[in-house]
Amino acid sequence: MYTCTKKFRWDVSQGPVEAVLQRCQSQSPTSCLTSASSSSFAPYGTPNRTSVSDSRPESQAEGGNSDSRVQEEGSSGRDPPITGALPQYPEPGSEEGLCSPGVLLAAQRWFTLFGWPDGPHPVTIPHTLRRLSATMEAGGSRGRGYPVIQSKDSRSVVDMLRHLSSTQPPGIPLDQSLSRDVGSRTNQLLEQHRAMLAFLRERGALLAHIRPEYLLDTHEFNHWCSLQVEESEVDYSRVDYESLSKRSWLDVLLQIYKVLVLCRVSGDIDAFQAQDVMGQREVKGHREVIGHQALGSNVYSSWELHLLAWLNTHYQAMRSRVWSTGELPAARWIVNFDLNLADGLVLAALLAAYCPHMVSSHFHRMYTRSSSLEQILHNNIILVQALCTLSLNIDIQPTDLSDPNPVQMLMLCVHLYEHLPRLRPLRTITFSGELHSTVTKQVRLKSPSSKPLQYQCSLLGSDAHFFSLPSDSTVTIPPGASAEVSVHFCGSSLRPMEALLLLTSCSAIGPRGGTLAFALETKLTHLKPTKMVRCTSPCYQLKRIQLAITNPFPTDACFRVLLMEVRSPPAERDENTISLFQQASVDCSVSPEESDSESRGTEAGEFFSAVKSVCLKPGQGDTLEVSFLPLSPGPKHCSLLLLCPHVGDMVYSVKAVAELPLSCPLTATPTAHLAPPPDTPDRGEPALGLRCKAGEACEVTLLVPRVNQARETALGLWAQHGMSPHERRRRRLTHTLDGSSVRTAAALRKATEQQVWADRIRDATHSEGLEYSVEVSMPDHFHLPHTVTVPLGEHTVAEREPEWECVSVPLGFQADAAGRYRCRLVLRSWLDTRVYELDVQVTAQVEKKTAQEVMSSRLSL
Asked: What interhelical angle do 95-114 and 241-260 show, nearest 10?
């Protein structure tokens, strides 16, 4: 048992802060998982919990001139002296043995996938690495044959070094053929391993405890041991060769990873620049909290500190975006590669920063405050699914993330650091077209490689099901040629669609191409309604329109009903109308099942419907009732949108004409010219009856009501529709469904929707009243003032019960011929329109004869 103190110093706005982590013994099987990335062991079997990148200026200085002495010995061909026990693989029951299987598995996984030049190849430490590079049967000088177990595969650790370093290690021939003689072959392998170790030490590897003979195969090692003198410092006959070989090759591979792979994590290539995933101000704010870069550490190298800062920046910036609904994950300071990454939230936020499409499909289902092992495993299952979807998994299982090994997690972070920037789209492909049309785009891929490249195509994002690829989603690019990938889009939705076209290399052998990503977006340029319905209705009169709808999609759909009234008929290429419809579609993206069952119906100005959703099977039809209640005359245009985010949308158009309202009752002051009302007309109230003689001037004072009762009734109906079922039931029981408060609320609601109305009501209240223009259908006979002012008094029309208070309007009539004169009187204002009917019966003038004329006529008879 031992204690290891780890110190970190971070640069924050309040000044340097030092975090000290004290390691202690635990009864948990994972007690060996420290906060450091333990990836190498001390030489000669002594536990040494250092990171995979132990070579840093501080550690190099601790050894004084030992490193330079090692380099001199390596360069001069001499091996470092043996100063202690031989390296041994830890025993399973020891404390170090609890961690070593995870480290061994991590190294085997990574070098299996990325260690070879011609693609993945299984690696088993140490057997795969210590085998010879040719198939042969060696024979000694004395004629004795020694069988050498070898494979036909000619891969060797030299090929691995050449692939990872992109150079030929000095001192190793390019095409080395091994001797059939065991003695000569042993010397050749010792020189090869000595040159390899010197090559790694020059690059900063800590391999002073590894000697070339530790890397030999069984037959060569036994031959080398037989040549040692009896006075040797170590009795190799008692050495556990398999343990020595496994430990030596494991340390060599870890140091290869450190000096050839981990060093790629450089501050010169800043993978978390502000413009990549967030704004400058936001990044600055987060870095003031967590610090941009650690100032120093006695455990981590600058490469690992850079990775920790990268993780901190993305987690702090994305945790409120990825999990914006519900409980936010707790803020944390990421200082290790195991415990801080165990719940999967940090890596999920990291993936979301480079591929936001994974949020809706994967990460929103994660537990943000995991409190049990089951919840942690659930999060890591989702994380592994996301890694597999993005082709970023390096053979890691969810249990590996729930019980993390720091070396394995460090390798995963480095892998993500190198490959996540490739998920940023190279360019954006726009699909433009008409609603319910199919658009096809081709993506041309060119390959400069001399060998064929094979890519696997996939679509990511919540809208990916609206896009489609050919049945064979694999594309092969011939050497030095090009290939095309066809992407189809079915424009069945109003809202803009977004998806990601991801092309990942799937070549089993040969060169592997880099990951390619293209952003897909849609633009609706044409909007042609599925069906148009026409109708007419007088103002303030409810008109019910029966609209036949059909589901044209091949799947069941539950549509959200949305009505939108527009001032002019929507043109097919009207960008403003299309933008308005798209915004409405985005705002109503909530499915009908998630909406409140007690919510009010759908309305749009003077159109409304009691139906808020309708579910149809493929090809099924139904009739949707839309109510039209005009409050002003003129043409009206309404678009009925049937929205289903996961299936598609439909647009129906209603073109209505609001005619003049029906005639209202009208009275006049008592006069001899008043006559009984004529027969009731087919529409509206009876006309005001008047009578006079031909050529006689008829003067009448009309009494125009202050309140437009027809409009008040229409406002009451409109307000009732806006009530919830509970409110409508309550008012019906209390007999207040038609009360003045209902009309007041409706008037205020209409005024709120149209700010011009609210301003004019306020102006009319403080002025003399509401001014109406007067129109008559027979201006030659009926004479009225051009304007009539109706005072509103202290209260507006909608704020009290209609009282039959009237305004006097003088009327003059004169006709020279007898007959019936029926005139329509129209009063118009910005608030309402009124229609009154006047019916005047004109009789002929009776001639009066004198008495003499009467006597003369009688005498003649």
From this structure: 60
Could you read off the pLDDT of 5-24 as tens digits, one per residue? 344 444 433 334 344 444 44
Helix, strand, coil % over all residues of the chain, rounded to 5:
35, 25, 40
The DSSP 8-state label assigned to residue 23 in this structure reads -
H-helix or E-strand containing 321?
helix 302-322
Distance CA 825, CA 778 (A): 9
Strand partners, 292: none
Do residues 654 and 533 lie in contact, with contact meaning Cβ atoms separated by under 8 Å? yes
- CA-to-CA dists, residue 297 to 4, 53, 61, 193, angstroms: 13, 12, 15, 33
Residue 75 and residue 72: Cα distance in Å, rounded? 5
Residue with structure tokens 């982590």? 21
DSSP letter string over 847-858? PPPPHHHHHHHH
pLDDT digits (tens, 9 = 90+) for 565-616: 876 665 555 666 777 777 777 766 544 444 443 444 565 678 888 888 999 9
What Å distances lie between residue 197 and 44, 130, 172, 234, 247, CA to CA? Answer: 17, 14, 11, 21, 15
Q: Token digits for 73? A: 């010995």
Cβ-count burial 779-796 (b if 16+ within 10 Å, e if not):
eebbebeeebbbebeeeb
**pTM tops 0.85, yes or no:** no
Q: Which helix (H) or strand (E) holds 686?
A: none
- Two structure tokens written together for 263: 């060093």
DSSP string, 158-205: HHHHHHHHSSPPTTS-SS----SSHHHHHHHHHHHHHHHHHHHHHTT-
